[in-house]
Amino acid sequence: MIAPGLFFLRRILFVGLAAAALLTAVRVAATNCPAGDAEALAWLDKMSRGIQQVSYHGVVTFQRGDDLQAMQVSHSVANGVATERLTELTGQGAEVVRVNHPLECVHPGHQLLQMGDRLQAGECGVADYYRFSVAPGELVAGRQAVRILIEPRDMYRYGYILELDRETGLLLKSAIIGRGDKVLEKFQFASLSFSPDTAADGGERLVHNAQHPHPQESRLAVGPAGLPWRIDWLPEGFTATDNPSAAEERRTFTDGLAVFSVFLEFLSGEIRPGEGVIRNGGTTSYTRGMHLGEQSILVTVIGEVPLNTARMVADSIAGCAGPC
Amino acid sequence: MSELMRESLSALMDDEANELEVERVLARIASDTDLRRVWVRYNVVHSVASGQPPTHLELDISSQVREALDGDSRGITNLRQRLVRPLASMAVAASVAATVVLGGQQLAQLEADSYDAQAIASSVSPVGMVNSLGATSVQASYGTQGMPELQPATRTAYQELARQRLHKYMQEHAEHAALNTPNGLVPFARVPRIKE
Fold first, then answer.
1. Where are the alpha helices (H) located in chain B, listed in sequence order?
2. Is B184 within 8 Å of A51 when comparing Cβ atoms?
3. Minimal Cα–Cα distance from A121 to chain B, Å?
4. What is the CA angle B159-B139-B93, rounded to 5?
5. What is the DSSP letter of A127?
6. End-to-end Cα, chain A, rounded Å
7. What is the mean pLDDT of residues B153-164?
8. Which of A28, A56, A229, B17 makes an SS bond possible with B11, Cβ 3.0 to 4.6 Å?
9. pLDDT (tens digit, 9 = 90+) per residue, A11-41?
């Protein structure tokens, strides 16, 4: 029984060493941002800016495993502000609206994609964390698309396949790709029209006004403040989406393509340490009971990132004795 | 501990490690106290999640090896399945290796650092459901140190907790995703039930 075990371990070591040598060579080559990425980055720049500038409406499908949802989206731009609306056509039938979002208000995720002159200056931006390639796309909702294949450079994020409208850069179709090239979720336009939406909706439905968290936003303290805490580890390239206080129970981070949020609850009693995971499409929801010194806490990391990332972020949470 | 190590360790826990990562952990775990500490913590948490007592902490190496190779006990269905899933097999190999390097004194030390076993054994969950589901912890003797053994009910409770938290927090997460990714308001489609 022991001999095959030893043989097995030795084999692992050999394969590992060979892989190490190979990977070192690849890492060196990857440090400067390759010319192939520049074209993709230019497309992402166009896509991110286009979202603010183009008026359109259409029907979008959103697929996770066997679950298929359909929704109507509209986006209109006038007088320097954008108004957006999403109406679910399946399931709950709820509506989400964002009214009068200023065009000059560019959030951190889009700032990461809008490389502009920084691209000419030789910066790699998101290409430090993803590998890109551009391919001719097919028709999506009757529009000619260009396909951007996005592969993560580390194991902390997923891959993406984006299809953009050749003319406007509008994102027509996107898929989140997990390990083993598995499509975790997919959204795409089924129909699209580049004009402001004129359809008036008389139906009674739940309407949610989307909030506007932003790094420069002055914030009102919500609820009783908890203890100050910090996150000691984030995957490279992730930046905060707003500016929460050291005691606020939520933090959110983005690398321009992926977003995850960390929620912390201070518990009054003891908790049995452990973890629970729910995965739904590209979303991982990881809940972990642990201790910050004497204090029991419940950490939840939700986002479109692999379980590893969520676990490692939760593991790095620390309390602050002094200022964070 | 380096970031690369953390990464390898976490991947190993999920059976997602590649050969290089397994090798990395095997090579370092004997000499790196931090690495062992994190390894033990990940394993305790992971064991709870999978409803198993943290068997990797057992010092009975022969039974660990037998379990890994025969593959006929807890969670490991048969040898053939192990062989066709090489990554999983390597994770088992790695946990055997980790067991080998953990001496009795070290284990006691790590155990005390990882969490307060006494407190857990007598814990009352603030979540409520953990106890209502009948989760009980019993003390298994481990030389000088108490060792909590967690029942599968804890796993069920954590699974339920994760589901509830997803419902509670998904919308707030979507608010940020909608402003910081190229999909516009589409991230709201991930919210199980949109609230006003």
1. 3-13, 19-28, 33-49, 61-70, 79-84, 86-101, 104-114, 117-121, 129-132, 152-180
2. yes
3. 24
4. 65
5. G
6. 53
7. 89
8. B17
9. 555 555 555 544 443 333 344 577 668 899 9
